[in-house]
Amino acid sequence: MKTDSVIKILFIENSVEDAEQIITLLRNAGIAVRPARATTPEQIHSALEELGPDLVLFNPGVNGLPLRSVAQQIDASSRDIALITCVTKIDDQSVADMFQDGVQGVGSRSQPKQMIAVIKREFDSLNTRRQVRRLESALRESERRCDALLDSSNDPIAYVHEGMHVRANRSYLDTFGYEDYDDLLGLPVLDLIGPADAEAFKNLLRALSRGEKAEYRLELHARRADGTTFPATAEFAHATFEGEACLQIVFRRQQVDAALVEQLQRDPVTGLFNRARTLEFIDNAVAAASEGRKGQSLLLIEPDNWAHIVSGVGLGKADELLAAFAHRVSMLLGQEDVAGLLAEHTIGVILRTDSDEAIREWIGGLQQAISREIFDLGNQSITLTVSIGGSLLGEKNANTEMLLNQASQALRSAQSQGGNRSDLHDPAAREKADAERERNWLGLLRQALTQNEFVLYHQQCISLQDAEGDYSEILLRMNGPQGEVLPGFFMPIAEKHGLNAEIDRWVLSQAIIALKSRERSGLPTTFFVKLTADSLQQQGTLLPWLDRVLKQANLKNGRLVLEMTESKVVTMLRPAQEFINAWKKLGGYFALEQFGSGLNSFQLLNHINADYLKIDRSFMADLPQHPENQKKISEICQQAHEMKRMAVAEWVEDAASTSLLFACGVDFVQGNFLQEPQRLAVTV
Q1: pLDDT at position 84 over 50
Q2: Strand, helix or coil for residue 170
Q3: Which strands, in side-by-side order, build the sheet including 164-168?
C-alpha cells in the first residue's frame, strides 16, 4: 500500500471514541484516513453518497443494525466497498457467521497489528480490483490488435525490443525480401531504414522507449535486403511480446481506402456494424467506464417469437424483415450511439445517455415504434413486438464478458415475462447519485465564493526558539447544509472544476485582512497559507494582485508565508521555481510541507528557495517509541539550520514528543495537543 494513500473509511460505531481509537491507530501507523461515522441506515446511505468510502468498518454491537442488512445496503449501492467487522473477541463460529453475512475481513480490537493488517489488505485488494478492471480492458485491446494485424494482415508488421526484431509476419518478410524469420532474428530494425531517415527513426524509437510524448507515425524510405528502397509510413504502438514491453511497427506502402474499411465493418444484410466491430465498440465503452466515464449502457434487442415469424414468412423474406427491423432501430439512435448485429437476430446498442429516465424513455419509444410499424414483405404484412435487455455500464462492471452476460440475462428475463418487455440491470445505481451530489457540491462551492460562505480557522505554531510574534497555520472550512465541512470533501470537486485558484485568492484576501487587523491591535502575526497547484498556473495575475493587496494593507515583509507540499512541488518544479523566486522578490516567504517524505528532499532545495521546512507528519507518529525518527528529525534540523532554514514539526500530539523535538532542534511545533484550531476573526 502506498504510504501517501488516503483511505476513506465509514465507521459504523456507537461512540465517537471507538472510531477515534481506530483512526489514531491507523494514523500512528502512517496511514492517512478520511473518516465518516454512521449509526442508522439513513446515515449510512448519506455517508455512502457523500464520502464514497473505500472501506466500511462495522461494530456488531451497534444497536438496531444487523450485519446482513448493512451488507445488503452496501451491495445495493453498487460501489466496490470492502466490509470489515471490528470485534473484541474472535471465535470460529462468529467469524464463519460474519463471512456468511457478507464481510470481507474481521479485525480484532485487542490486536492492533492484526487490525491494521486487515485494513491494509482489503484496501490493497480494492485497488487491485480497480486496476484489474482497467488492465482487462487494455489486454483485450492488445490481443485484438495482435490477432487482427499480425498473421492475417497484408501490412508488414514487426515487434521490436530495444531496437531488435523479435517477431514479424509473413508480409513483413516478403516486403523486405527475406525468406525466413531466422534471417531477421536479432537484426536491428535500423538496418531496414534508408540512410537519410535513420537518425529521425532512431530518435523516435528512443523517445517512445522512454515514454516521452512523440508522434506515432513517421514518413520514411525503407530499405530491402537487396539494398533497394521504397517510400513508406511507419506506424508505432506500444505492445508486449512474451511478457516483455516492445514496440509494434507497421510499414504501410499505401493508404487503405477508408470507404472499403467501413464497408468491411458492416453487416451486409442490416447495414449495422458486424459482430467484430460491435465488440470493439463495447470494449472501448468498457475501457472508458474503467477510467470514470458515465452515462453508457449496453442494450440487447430481439424481435419476439423470431423462429415462429420466420417459419411463417419463409427464409427468403427473413433477411428483408431483419433489415427493416434494424432500420427502425437505427432511426432512433443518437449521434454518439452505436448499433451492431451481435447474433443472428440480436442487435446490440451502446446507448449514451445522461440519466436512467432517458434510457427508459428510449426503450419505451423503440418498443412503441416497433409495435406500431407494419412491415411489408411482398404480399405479406406483419407486425412485431420486441424484448430488450440491458445493463448500465459503470466502474464496477467494467468488464466486457460480465457486461454481455448481464445484458443477456436481462434480455432472457424480459422474454420470460411474455415478450414486449424490457429489463435493465443497474450495477451502479449510486453513480448517478454521486454525480448529483457532485453537482450539488459544485453549486455550494460557487455560492460560497460569491457569498463568503467559506470559513477560516487558525492553528498556532509555537516557537521553541523564542521567535518574536505569533505564528499560525490557516485552515479552510466551508459552511455546508449540515454544518462546517472539511476541505477533504469539497476541494477535490473544486480542483476538478477549476475553482482552486479562485478559492486560494479568497483565502489569501481574508488572511491579509486578518493580518492587517492584528497589526493595528499590536499583535504582529505570521500566517502560513496553503497554495494549490492551480495558482502556480496563474502566477502572471496572482503575484501582481498579491503585491497590490499587501501594499494596500501596509504589511511588513514576511507576514505571509505561502506553502505547498514537497510532492506537488517536485512534479511542478519549473513553474514552482519561477513562482517562488518571483514571490521572494516581493518580500514573501515560502514553506515546503511534508518535507522529508522524498528520497532526497534536500536536493530539492537546490532549486526551491524555501524559508520553512514543515517536516512530514509520518515522523511524528509515536515519536518517543521510534528513535530512528528522532534521528531523522535531528538530521533534517541540522541541515536546515546549516542552510539557514527554519524547521517546523506538525501533528505534534503529546508532551513527550514536544520535548524530544526541542532536543532535535525544531524551531516550531504545531498540533492539536498544543492548540486546537480556532475560528479566525476577520474584521475589516
Answers
A1: yes
A2: helix
A3: 164-168, 157-161, 244-252, 229-241, 217-223
